[in-house]
Amino acid sequence: MSKRILQDYVISAREYSSLVLHREETLRVIDVEGKQVADLVGLSASDKSEKLSCVCSNVLNGTWKLTKGHVLFTNRASPFLSIAEDKVGLHYSGGGFCSEEVNYIRYKVHGNRNFADNLTITVWE
Asked: What is the per-residue pLDDT across 100-125, written as a single tens digit (0 to 9) for each?
């Protein structure tokens, strides 16, 4: 059975998007240009203090290599999302993300938009 596409986004490098995902809906991430990173933050709609947790997801799945069939858990160890398909097979799920400071140490650049900036902008919208 084919699923209906509710929204389709192309997100440029260093940009962001936000959405509300309901039970039984699917979020599909496609890296159209290659070698991009999709940082993902998830918050419960009913309790913003409950959030997606890399640590709980890794511990409860018994692996740091999350892929098809694994469940992503919240900081309260509740199932949050499931991975239905994985065409890449290698993901980092340690929970780190880029910031102005990290980018400077790694790449010696200042002023590039980064995950921390995008998260701040999204929260205040």
From this structure: 898 899 889 898 888 888 888 887 77
